[in-house]
Amino acid sequence: MFVIVKVFMLLAVAACVAKTQPSLSNENCLCNRVRNTLIKSEGVRDIQIYPPTVFCSKMEIVVTSNKGRRFCLDPNKITVQTLIHNIMRKVKPTPVTSTANIGLSL
Length: 106
Hints:
GO terms for molecular function: chemokine activity. One of its GO terms (cellular component) is extracellular space. InterPro entries: Chemokine_b/g/d, Chemokine_IL8-like_dom, Interleukin_8-like_sf. It is a single chain. By secondary structure, this protein is α+β, with helices and mostly antiparallel strands. The protein has a domain at about 30-90: CATH 2.40.50.40. Helix content is about 30%, strand content about 15%. Strands 1-2-3 form a 3-stranded antiparallel sheet, with no helix packed on it.
């Protein structure tokens, strides 16, 4: 009888451990809910764009407002794409200069 209790306890522990393990189809995305547009009254402190990875198959756009609130924007909406395009157009790329001396012999 005591062995049966041990077996049931072992099965219960195994079931609990299996339940807490992430499944292969479960993605670890930052954005569970997304907004379609920005709220102009909040203002934007920071915008971070995360490309798809092995952990999350979606592109994610995380915005931090001036009030410190973080929210996600839907990258598939035209208004969000226009916003990102306008921001990227304003940012001037910095030239990359190399100071390394690479010696190649042909």
